[in-house]
Amino acid sequence: MVNRRSWLAVAARRPARYIQRMRTSPFDPRRIDERRRRFIEARRQRFRAIPVRTLLPNLITLLALCAGLTGIKLAFEGKLELALAAIIFAAALDGIDGRVARMIKGQSRFGAELDSLADFVNFGCAPGLILYWWELRDLGNVGWIAAMVFAICGALRLARFNVMIDDPNRPVWAGDFFMGVPAPAGALTVLLPIYVDLLGLVKTPATLTLLYTLAIAYLMVSRLPVFSGKRVGKRVPPEMVLPVFVLVVLFFALLIAYPWWVLSIGTVCYLAGLPFGWLSYQEHLRKDAEAAAGGTAEAPASAGDHTMDEPVRPSEDPERPARLN
């Protein structure tokens, strides 16, 4: 009873101390209005209408994904030619979805992530499974391991591309090169044994197909510079418009009439041209090194040039006394 009375006495002596602590109420109307305003803005931003121009590139990517999955299904059904046609169609769509997005200004972070996932399925999983179902399964678990290694290398290649594309320290000319064979080119290249088999020229042994698959997988994750071709075709001279039309029509006509010949010759030419990309990359590095060396050589020379009237000042050293600096 005594303790209770003493507590009441202390509370009665200094009431202002307790009242001051409750001066800011948690139910302040201004705070409630601010929270409500933030909630409404976040909800509007979440449910705002999405422009159609951002949907079109994603639809193209989804169509390419459907083509890749359909290619796997057709290969399991024994329809090998249609399966390869589906992979080629997916590669063609992959080549235009990014250009369409940049053309109509429909780029988005969602589209970039979706494109990477679709590329992994179309150009990593699908070619590996087609090769396994075609011939690598004759080698048992070893053939399955080769198919898995190719798919994993495709995933690693895409992950490295997503990381390197955001590097701010890359030189401007580095955009003309890929680091390693890109995933679509790797998928079309690794199917070369099937092209040759469909031509009826020679039946590739399963062991050779396995080694070739591992070699293309290594090229995908290697540091080999490869021409990207991103800056090709942005501007066409007026006198070259009609020849370009003729060449494009001729290429597609040959591809439809003689698909396996065109794909086989194109694959061999692509592999033969890889060293030229490395040589061009080394030339760019050499020019950058020369420019850097020239800049460092000019800096001491300019620092040593003084006029006759200007005295040479010694460099300031914090270890020396101020009067000697």
Describe, in plain words, how this protein is organized in 3D.
This protein has 325 residues and is mainly α. The protein has a domain at 52-231 and 251-283: Four Helix Bundle (Hemerythrin (Met), subunit A) (Up-down Bundle). It has 13 helices and two strands. Strands 1-2 form a two-stranded antiparallel ribbon. The chain is globular, with a radius of gyration of 33 Å. It starts with a helix and ends in a 21-residue tail after the last helix. The model is unreliable at 306-325 (pLDDT under 50).
Strand order of the largest sheet: 1-2
Tally of helical runs: 13
Structural class: mainly alpha
CATH class of the domain at 52-231 and 251-283: Mainly Alpha
Number of strands: 2
Per CATH, the superfamily of the domain at 52-231 and 251-283 is CDP-alcohol phosphotransferase transmembrane (TM) domain
Strand fraction: under 5%
Radius of gyration: 33 Å
Reported for the largest beta sheet, the result is:
2 strands, antiparallel
Topology as a string of helices (H) and strands (E) = HHHHHHHEHHHEHHH
* pLDDT < 50 runs, ≥5 residues: 306-325
Sum up the overall morphology in one term: globular
Mean pLDDT: 78
* Share of helix, binned: over 70%
User: So, CATH architecture of the domain at 52-231 and 251-283?
Assistant: Up-down Bundle
Can you tell me the CATH topology of the domain at 52-231 and 251-283?
Four Helix Bundle (Hemerythrin (Met), subunit A)
Distance between the termini: 81 Å
